[in-house]
Amino acid sequence: MPVVLRHNELLELNVAEYHGAITFAELKAVADYLAANRSFLKCDCLSIVFPGANFDTVEFDALNALFGRYKVLYEPINFQIIRRSAWLCFSPAAQAHIDHWSGKREAMSTTLRQFGSFEEAGDWLVLSEAETLALQTGAGFEELIRFEDAPSIAQARTG
């Protein structure tokens, strides 16, 4: 289950979880989902890259193109306050891609920061201690959708 999107209506907060080997097709599917469900674009978001996750097959040029798509999605939105995007990266293998993405996000009505713990991210997202605990445990976060590329027949035979 490489990419899972969750939402907490009460907190108006999205969570994006990244597990395993993430593909560009999955990242594009997330953007397609958000384009079709624009109400989620205004919410603050915590993105969590779990241990062992990687973006090894995703080229930086492809990330740049995807960033351009997000820029188009966010351009017409009228924000009363800057949207916050917090990141937790627990996978050293994914860090270069997170750094690359982070360097581009300031161009949208979003401020992005990476943190080392849920507590630090919760403080920055202005969550109470109980809300931060809910964020860490997933309590109150409804799964919206998950994206997972099906393995090819060749992969299935060797796996």
Describe the structure.
The chain is built from 6 helices and 6 strands. It starts with a strand and ends with a helix. The chain is globular. Strand 4, helix 3 and strand 5 form a beta-alpha-beta unit. The chain has a 6-stranded mixed beta sheet, sandwiched between helices. The longest helix is centred in the middle third of the chain and has 15 residues. Helix 1 runs parallel beside helix 2 and helix 2 packs parallel to helix 3. By secondary structure, it is of the alpha/beta class.
Integer average pLDDT: 87
Global outline: globular
The major beta sheet can be summarized as: 6 strands, mixed
The percent of residues in helical segments reads 25-40%
Class by SSE composition: alpha/beta
Rg computed from alpha carbons, rounded to a whole number of angstroms = 15 Å
Question: Count of DSSP helices?
Answer: 6
What portion of residues belong to β-strands? 15-25%
What strand line-up does the widest sheet have?
A: 5-4-3-2-1-6
Return residue spans where pLDDT drops below 50 for at least 5 consecutive residues: 152-159
SSE string, helices as H and strands as E: EEHEHEHEHHEH
Distance between the termini: 16 Å
Total DSSP E strands:
6
